Amino acid sequence: PGPDARGAVLHQATFSVRSGRSTALIGRSGAGKTTIVNLLCRFVEPDGGSILVDGTPLGEIDPGQWRTNIALASQELELVDGTILDNIVYGHDTASAGDAERAAKLAEAHEFIEHLPQGYKTLVGYRGVNLSAGQRQRIALARALVRDPDILILDEATNAVDGLSEAAIVETLKSRAGRRTTIVISHHHSTISFCDDVVILSRGRVKKQAPFAALAKLSMDELYQHEAGE
């Protein structure tokens, strides 16, 4: 939304995400990060301004086609009442059990799944109640990765995962980034450590965009200081 929109969440939020690179979006709660995710996934449409994809307005791209190219792993993503396999391939009808297993390995989920009595046939229960928060997040990440998307969005996708598993996930994402465009939202420095660029948001505005290497030595609190233009 434009700067004159009353009650707008984003104001003059201009930034770029380089194709085939990883970009971190950081900022305190209420900075506008989740709104950007919702716009990119087309859960909502902007009432002002524009989102360009290789120069083409996002609104001119067929929503169905767009959603085949983008995948989201979010802390808010709910599991469906079915098996672990059902949840990993959910929304991706052509995915096989082998595809699900490969995605689970990338998400550091395969080992704990294999230790369950029913393995990939384990029922997760209503909203995944039979699994821990960290296990649910790894299943949600596997669901995003099984599609091998051109654009991957991680919205606090590992905030409930233990440190060792998170480190392994980050290393996997870094080593397999390849052609994929990745957008990472997190309050953890370790999670964004593999990113090429960082965008610092505050109250719906972009305060700074820079190569992550130039800011890598700063703590998250020091990065947030850019919100005040320090």
From TrEMBL:
Pfam families: ABC_tran
InterPro entries given in the database record: AAA+_ATPase, ABC_transporter-like_ATP-bd, ABC_transporter-like_CS, P-loop_NTPase, Type_1_exporter
Residues of the ABC transporter domain: 4-228
Membrane protein topology class: Multi-pass membrane protein
GO function terms (MF aspect): ATP binding; ATP hydrolysis activity; ATPase-coupled transmembrane transporter activity
A GO cellular-component term linked to this record: plasma membrane
SMART domains associated with the record: AAA
Compartment annotation: Cell membrane
Record keywords: ATP-binding, Cell membrane, Membrane, Nucleotide-binding, Transmembrane, Transmembrane helix, Transport
Family: Belongs to the ABC transporter superfamily.
Protein name: ATP-binding protein of ABC transporter
Organism: Mesorhizobium amorphae CCNWGS0123
